[in-house]
Amino acid sequence: MTWIKTDSSDASDELRRAVEAQKALYPIEYATPVHPTDGTSEIVASHSLIPDALFHAFATFGVLMSPKLPLTRRQQEMITTVVSVTNRCHY
């Protein structure tokens, strides 16, 4: 749960478009959420007040996880794990 004000993904057309556009860039295995939600994670929702920032921040992740890049999925996951551990982040 975020501790800041957030908007639901249907609050405005601009926010809905930003959420849908960034999700479209994610690998197919991210289509089904691990934890049941309204389809938007809390970390994404924390950016909901600024739809452009939400899109750019999370679209970056989607592009970095592209299967078109020369890294294997295992390598991508290992890099994200090491970065999270280094930053003491539980995500």
Description:
It is a single chain. Helix content is 48%, strand content 0%. The protein is mainly alpha-helical and 91 residues long. It has one domain. 15% of the residues are buried.
The SS-based structural class is: mainly alpha
Low-confidence stretches: none
The domain tally reads: 1
Averaging pLDDT over every residue, what do you get? Answer: 81
Q: Name the shape in a single word.
A: globular
Give the percentage of residues in beta strands: under 5%
Distance between the termini: 13 Å
Helix content: 40-55%
Say how many strands there are: 0
SSE topology string: HHHH
Radius of gyration: 14 Å
Short account of what is shown:
With 91 residues, the protein is mainly α. It contains four helices and no strands.
